[in-house]
Amino acid sequence: MDVAQIRHPAGTNGPAARMNGVQNVEPLTKEERQWAQTARHNFQHELREAGLTMRYKEVVKTRASLLGIEDGIDGSATRDLLEKGAITGYQQGLVRAVIANAVHTGK
């Protein structure tokens, strides 16, 4: 794409123009920086989630005890369960063991 074709509400000084090497541009505004940070955060989150989903689908092939995990885990519900104090410390340990697919080897 030709840099001259890049349009932004701010004209040729917008973020798209800056990323494509247009010289003599003004620094990003506060709103543009916030947009870029949010976009980066969202992209990183989606990338992590996609990676986890791929790993979940692979792990059930070798660990039958994790069958069902390939559809994903409700992370916010799990965090709430562990952080809100709704369950005892012993129960929290059990939840963590289930999440880790731990095997009890003690007496």
Structure commentary:
The termini are far apart. This protein has helices spanning 15-19, 30-59, 75-83, 89-100. It is an all-alpha fold. Residues 3-10 have low confidence and may be disordered.
> Quaternary state, please?
single chain
Number of helical elements: 4
Strand-and-helix sequence, N→C? HHHH
Strand content: under 5%
Structural class: mainly alpha
> Would you report the number of β strands?
0
Please outline the major beta sheet: none
Round the Cα radius of gyration to an integer and report it.
23 Å
Overall helicity? 40-55%
Beginning-to-end CA distance, first to last residue: 67 Å
Mean pLDDT: 77
Give the tags.
107 residues, mainly alpha, 4 helices, elongated, disordered N terminus
How would you summarize the topology of this molecule?
Elements: H1 15-19, H2 30-59, H3 75-83, H4 89-100
Summarize the structure.
With 107 residues, this protein is mainly alpha-helical.
